[in-house]
Amino acid sequence: MLKFKYTCSCFMMASLMVGMFSCNDLEEYNPSGATADTVWSTPEGFMTLVNAAYSEQRQLFGKEDGLFMFESGTDLWFNEGKGGYARQMTKYEGLTPADGNPNKKAWQVLWNSINHANAGINRIDNAGFTSQEERNSRLAELRFVRAFNYYYLVETYGGVMLRTRETQGVQLTAERSPVEDFYKLMIEDLTYAAEHLPVSFGAEYSRATKKSALGFLSKVYLSRAYYSKGAEAAPFFQKARDVAQEVINRKSEFGVDLWKSYEELWDPKNNKRNKEALYVVSNSASNTALNYDADANRLHLWFMTPYSGKPGLVRSLKYGRDNSRRLMPTLALLDFFDEKKDARYKGSFREVWIANNPFSWTAKTVAEYGKDRSLIGKTMVPGKDTALYITKRTIANERMLPYVVIDRDSTYFTSAAGAIRTGRDFVQLTKFEDPTRASIEANPGFQDIIIMRFAEMYLIAAEAELQLGNTARAAEYINVIRRRAALPGKVAEMEVAAGDIDIDFILDERARELAGEHTRWLDLKRTGKLVERVREHNPDITLIRPHHVLRPIPQVELDALTNGTEFGQNPGY
Question: What are phi and psi of 279, to 5 degrees?
Answer without folding.
Answer: -155, 135
